[in-house]
Amino acid sequence: CTDQREVSLQTSVSEQTAKHPCYSQEAHTRYARMHLPVAPHCNISCNYCNRKFNCVNESRPGVTSEVLTPADARRKFAMVKEKVEQLSVVGIAGPGDALANWPETRESIERIKAAAPDIVFCLSTNGLMLPDFAQEIVDLGIHHVTVTVNCLDTEIGARIYKFVHYRGQKLTGVEAAATLLKNQLEGIGFLVKHGVLVKINIVMMKGINDRHIPEVVQKMKELGVFVTNIMPLIPAPGSVFEHMPQTSMKEVSDMRSACEQYLPQMRHCRQCRADAIGLLGQDRSHEFRLAPPAYEQ
Ligand code: CLF
Ligand code: SF4
Fold this sequence. Notes:
There is one protein chain. This protein is an alpha/beta fold. It has one domain: TIM Barrel, CATH 3.20.20. The protein contains eight helices and ten strands. It has helices spanning 2-18, 70-83, 102-115, 130-139, 154-160, 173-193, 213-223, 249-259, and strands at residues 32-35, 44-46, 87-92, 120-125, 144-148, 161-166, 169-171, 197-204, 227-232, 277-278. It has a seven-stranded mixed β-sheet with strand order 9-8-5-4-3-1-10. It has a three-stranded antiparallel β-sheet with strand order 2-6-7. Helix 5 (154-160) packs across helix 6 (173-193). The radius of gyration is 18 Å and the shape is globular. The site of iron/sulfur cluster (SF4) has 11 residues, from strand 2. FE(8)-S(7) cluster (CLF) is lined by residues 22, 33, 35, 58-59, 89, 91, 93, 122, 124, 146, 229, 269-272, 280.
């Protein structure tokens, strides 16, 4: 019956979460993740990003990474699985946006799932295309999705996003921010309703969205989000925000403490690269390169 199916779905999700180093504080010293850099394009432009580097929403700027086809991703997974025994999670976190490259993202997951059904899959996205692809995400059996939501206020959003490419149109200013926000909220609501554990990344930018973050976290609680991950702004070289001050870890930590009353706070994020491999805080990506780095510093 439906109730039994729901209970068994919840059990399988919580079993997966117990092995997910980002979703479980206890798991992060025991289980490893690998990121597949199969998503080079992005459909928005964040002012803290330089498109030559990795998606800053989920990874440090200024580091090189290769870009793989789904077939290469499958080959690389096999190599890594053999050598990294703690591997439990395969994530797609750029170097652009996982959903702006949905055919490649989906094919990579399908290929690996066919070979290793026990692997936990994880996606990171800016959320613009969630209304289009959330159902497919659910159908693929992905139970862990991260969305970067930096603000609820479109005036603030207009200062963060240079443009948004949506359905053949290039939107700017408040209109761009409003479209992105609408799709983020709709997509997050859909995922939560379908049993996906949603993590929200928030990039803390001094003088831009820092005072507004508690409101964002409260709204995410209302939507049924699992955890928020407030991250420091690390302005990418060559980005619009290149000369903005980097948010200190003390400031981030204080903000996490202030927001803990609303939702659990991730405190062990390592802002890893789009091709990171290993335990969090450990990067073995250099051991498994298939192609020369796509971008040189
Ligand atoms: Fe990767 Fe992100 Fe999945 Fe983790 S990372 S897609 S949720 S498997 Fe983790 Fe890295 Fe922080 Fe991301 S430590 S940057 S939160
Ligand atoms: Fe850059 Fe990521 Fe923003 Fe896209 S979503 S512009 S890759 S930081």
